[in-house]
Amino acid sequence: MRLLIVNGPNLNLLGTRETDIYGSKTFEDYFVELQFKFSEVELAQFQSNTEGEIIDQLHQAHDGKFDGVILNAGGYTHTSVAIADAVAGIDLPVVEVHISNVMDREEFRHTSYISKYCVGTISGFGLESYLLGIQSFLNDSKDKD
């Protein structure tokens, strides 16, 4: 199985940004842990602060390189019709993840333009939200066997 993790704006600051919300571990360090834990899965990651680059990455994932996408669109979750359209337009399952519990935060974060087009949403489990996203793909693959 091949999965792509796409991280949106400001997630490059994990480890130093609002550590009371996002923790003190960088995503790069956590990604190494994920690769070790899920050695049977080919994991790739991409991060951008730019909406168009995220859309381009989603389009490229659609070309058969990946079996699914784990998407943390960051603040674009609540603002980007274009990223929602990209998720809707690709023929890949996408799991939306958030590190924080978005429903326990500012009201504008309660709306996701992306959720409607995803197979599921995982929110509020810290960086473990990514692990749960990967596990959801593995569980789904076992169900199909």
TrEMBL record:
Arranged from A to Z, the UniProt key words for this protein are: Amino-acid biosynthesis, Aromatic amino acid biosynthesis, Lyase
Q: Name one GO biological process term.
A: chorismate biosynthetic process
Q: Has the keyword Nucleotide-binding been applied to this entry? A: no
Q: Which GO terms describe its molecular function?
A: 3-dehydroquinate dehydratase activity
Q: Which Pfam families did the record assign?
A: DHquinase_II (PF01220)
Catalytic reaction list? 3-dehydroquinate = 3-dehydroshikimate + H2O
InterPro entries cross-referenced by the UniProt entry = DHquinase_II, DHquinase_II_CS, DHquinase_II_sf
Q: Has UniProt tagged this entry with the keyword Membrane?
A: no
Point out the signal peptide segment.
none
* Residues at the site labelled Transition state stabilizer: 17
Which pathway? Answer: Metabolic intermediate biosynthesis; chorismate biosynthesis; chorismate from D-erythrose 4-phosphate and phosphoenolpyruvate: step 3/7
Q: Transmembrane stretches, by residue range?
A: none
The active site of this protein is located at: 22 (proton acceptor), 98 (proton donor)
What Enzyme Commission number(s) does the record list for this chain?
A: 4.2.1.10
Q: What class of enzyme is it?
A: lyase
Taxonomically, the superkingdom here is Bacteria
Function noted in UniProt? Catalyzes a trans-dehydration via an enolate intermediate.
The record's annotation in NCBIfam families points to: aroQ, PRK05395.1-2, PRK05395.1-3, PRK05395.1-4
For this chain, the family text in UniProt reads: Belongs to the type-II 3-dehydroquinase family.
Record's subunit section: Homododecamer.
Question: Could you tell me what this protein is called?
Answer: 3-dehydroquinate dehydratase
